[in-house]
Amino acid sequence: MLHWVYWVVVVVVAGVATFKARGAQVTYDGRSLIIDGHRKILFSGSIHYPRSTPQMWASLIAKAKEGGVDVIQTYVFWNRHEPQPGQYDFNGRYDLAKFIKEIQAQGLYACLRIGPFIESEWSYGGLPFWLHDVHGIVYRTDNEPFKFYMQNFTTKIVNLMKSEGLYASQGGPIILSQIENEYQNIEAAFNEKGPSYVRWAAKMAVELQTGVPWVMCKQSDAPDPVINTCNGMRCGQTFTGPNSPNKPSMWTENWTSFYEVFGGETYLRSAEDIAFHVALFIARNGSYVNYYMYHGGTNFGRASSAYIKTSYYDQAPLDEYGLIRQPKWGHLKELHAAITLCSTPLLNGVQSNISLGQLQEAYVFQEEMGGCVAFLVNNDEGNNSTVLFQNVSIELLPKSISILPDCKNVIFNTAKVCSSVEIKFTVKFICHTRDFILKIIVEVKGFTRKEKKKMGNSLEP
Fold first, then answer.
1. Residue 251 in contact with residue 281, Cβ under 8 Å?
2. Residue 429, class by beta-carbon neighbours within 10 Å (0-12 exposed, 13-18 middle, 19+ buried)?
3. In whole numbers, what is the pLDDT of the chain averaged over residues?
């Protein structure tokens, strides 16, 4: 690991990167983030402040907290904050500091994804359109005009957060920051200027001395001490891991659904599928999971990119209007509680992987002092499986993970949904005045095709 020394000292001792400042001490090692000396398993939820109103923020954050979320994660929207060069807007829905302060008031942490290219199905990927008129500019590469304006805005945001005392190093809630966004998707197109841009962006960010770690998502070549993280629906299976044994395994975007385009079908991802892959990621030494989105909200005006609907990630645990979406919200709340109960052996125990059958396995974390937690995995999508674990027969539901906080008793299974199920109806009335014929058309929303098939005719009028 490279050593970075600035006004905020970054010390590397026995594989632990330490960010020291006046407030909370945020560190990391190869297992997890460490806050004030305590390892943490953290559940995070993305809520974008411009996609809701300031009047909604307190309620959205409170519902996330009640759902077992520890961190609120948000992008920073450059083209809304700097509509013209040097002219800034941090009012109303764009009052970033107010949003972060609300997170702090409710006792949660924050992750600030500055980018400043963010994608996020946002117009121009968050880049101000006036950049187009800058002479000689080439976006997101080792190009001096672009780097000048990118550094200028990034510094503006960091200084704003510092002036309000919002970094954890100052006693604030921000424990993580992100620079760039899924750059590896296009890095090769810039040849040698791609990797040099990555190195420049990481160095520029760290030199801003926030006192908290920086991450780069989907960036396997993220330079030390920046942490490379995973985005996707199945990071427990797809993530190749941190690029250093001294960095934790983190999942910055667990897609709870997917964005929608006009004319497209709604993508429904079940609570069971989300829970399975979160549990698998934790079982495979993951320690930070962010739900993208936890609340999608609304693309007001012309904020969205081409063809993207006004409603954004409406199938998230909180719907477009901030209402709790069951069973997703409740099932994930129960998952968070189960994993939090196991956090001590998870973070301090020795992991082992045991085969329980052709498609079944166990991940066991054993502490020296006797603490034990087990994740029993059934990868068979169509059949129950009875496995023998520590001389006890345990039945596993299809495509599921059972959590045993003492390696004996099952307290949660990812496929067993105990939360109430919501039903939304779209009702159309067709009336003929002469004969007064009334026809009711009922459209059931919020279920997958498989779930609708199971219900059969029970929902017909």
1. yes
2. exposed
3. 90
Q: Which helix (H) or strand (E) holds 17?
A: strand 16-19
121, 253, 272, 361: which is the annotated catalytic residue?
253
| CATH 3.20.20.80 is held by the domain 10-341 | yes
192 is annotated as an active-site residue: no
Contact predicate 228/234, CB 8 Å? no
CA distance 383 to 405: 24
Using DSSP's 3-state secondary structure scheme, residue 303 falls into coil
Query: What does the block give as tokens for 403?
Result: 């959590």
Instruction: From residue 38, give the alpha-carbon distance in Å to each of 344, 352, 410, 444.
Output: 10, 23, 27, 46
Cis amide linkage into residue 293, ω under 30° from 0 = yes
**Tokens 């645990």 label which residue?**
317
> Quick one: pLDDT at residue 42?
98
pTM for the model stands at 0.89
- Residue 182 bears catalytic tag: yes
> Among the options 164, 182, 367, 422, which is catalytic?
182
Closest by alpha carbon to 70, among 361, 337, 416, 295?
Answer: 337
- For residue 183, pLDDT over 70 is answered with yes
